[in-house]
Amino acid sequence: MEYKNELRRFIQEELHQYLSHVSVDLTIFGFHDGQLKVLLLRWKGSDDWSLPGGRIHRDENLDAAAYRSLQERTGLREIYLQQFHTFGEVERYKNFSRQETAVRLGIPADLHGELFRRDVSVGYFALVEFAEVTPTPDRFTDECRWWEVAGVPPLLFDHNDMIRLALKTLRQQLSYQPVGYNLLPEKFTMPELQRLYETILGKPLDRRNFQKQMLAYGLLERLEERKTGGAHKAPFLYRFDREKYGKALEEGI
Amino acid sequence: MEYKNELRRFIQEELHQYLSHVSVDLTIFGFHDGQLKVLLLRWKGSDDWSLPGGRIHRDENLDAAAYRSLQERTGLREIYLQQFHTFGEVERYKNFSRQETAVRLGIPADLHGELFRRDVSVGYFALVEFAEVTPTPDRFTDECRWWEVAGVPPLLFDHNDMIRLALKTLRQQLSYQPVGYNLLPEKFTMPELQRLYETILGKPLDRRNFQKQMLAYGLLERLEERKTGGAHKAPFLYRFDREKYGKALEEGI
DNA sequence: TCAAAAGTGTTTAGCATACACCCATGC
DNA sequence: GCATGGGTGTATGCTAAACACTTTTGA
């Protein structure tokens, strides 16, 4: 009941503050335990999951709106965020029909029209450091948590498509833009960086060639320290040279 | 006067048929006389130019809306059309302020607000065969014609930025996707294809290496004929293998 | 002392670059 | 015949891929 009132209040009092017919959706990638993860939200009183997203204030830049949603869900600032595609099909209900979606989410019939108007949605993906994130649900959701990308269930709307395309874009970028700064802790080992690349690309890489290539980019600084406590030979720790990394992001590797 | 009434009629009777706060803009590239060209519109009663664009019907897919505008301006079907970026800044008036734009276009003060609402605009670029195009102005414009990309004047809104980014995207795609099918006539010579590449990339290419590379892609079929009438040795004519070309577009070269 | 992981260097192959000669055509 | 442009082949260099041995560590 409270939820339905919340929906009504949102529609009547707040929806007009935002641009109509446009929204943003976020594919937030994190890396943990050798797995690529994505942050999903479970809707109130349902078992259904979707990507986080949000609307755009009337006086807010598009990028700023995406950034705001990202901060709200993760608590993070200064993260890598990039637009990758705008989804504009009339029928964006893929796994579940529009009607079925409304029922599953317990949206009262008289609110369907207002709440599920047709939107053009601008898709962004973000790369964040797993350990730094505090997953936080929004007003319409009960739970916010990481899912392994490979194990994501059928999502609401066209969000499985979004994740697929975000990942494809990320893979392509890997070859001409540096990745890692925002997905790894400040200090990391070469094997850790390699696991990240292997996970994103979905294929094994040669240890020696990988190291050569990474070092050749000139973005890494090897520290004196080694990572101890592992069961085997202690690997060196590395750190990204922030300035060079930023420049490489701008201009390509 | 007629123009102002047209504007009023549009706002009152037609604007509601479209999604609000979203539009599409098109950068239509053509190739002629060894120059890369872009199709621009001159607004009624003004000397100011902009990219063609349009709004999205409430029951129309985003891509379909872009495609429809493209057909209306060029008369063409079956052209290469691709989304490249969504422009969502609040202030998209770059060369001329919002106020100045209204004055230059002769928009009555009482219509500023309605007609120049803030829009998020999805940018598409298209590649078309120059000779096949019939440039056609829309209801708000007097003239539609090709401009050399390098000589485009300061445009309305953020359209110079759009062209710049469209061109950048096209250049990047050149290296992993085939280009040419939609920019050249069905039969063309290797030197013609090379001019096209050189024009897009803005730099000269080696004749011999270019030919080797193009043929290595396996997308070209050499015809028996040669192009006669030129002042020099008759070059062979080539044609794209449409099936392989389509496959290469999907999967990358 | 052994298994598992990490550090390092060399060889090889493929692709992109650089480059030179011959042929056809119009003036 | 000569200037201009078109057709073709080969040598070279660089980057990416393939690959092996040694070192460190905890069990």
Explain what this protein looks like in three dimensions.
The structure is a homodimer of 253-residue chains. Chain A is of the alpha+beta class and 253 residues long. The first copy, chain A, folds into two domains: 2-173, Nucleoside Triphosphate Pyrophosphohydrolase (Alpha-Beta Complex); 188-251, Orthogonal Bundle (Arc Repressor Mutant, subunit A), CATH 1.10.10.10. Chain A has helices at 2-14, 62-74, 98-104, 109-115, 159-174, 190-201, 207-217, 242-251; strands at residues 18-32, 35-43, 49-50, 53-57, 80-87, 120-127, 141-148, 188-189, 220-226, 236-240. In chain A, the strands form two sheets. In chain A, strands 1, 2, 3, 4, 5, 6 and 7 form a seven-stranded mixed β-sheet that branches. In chain A, strands 8-10-9 form a three-stranded antiparallel β-sheet. Chain A is elongated. Chains A and B meet through β1, α2 and β5 of A and β1, α2 and β5 of B. Chain A binds a DNA duplex (27 and 27 nucleotides) through α7.
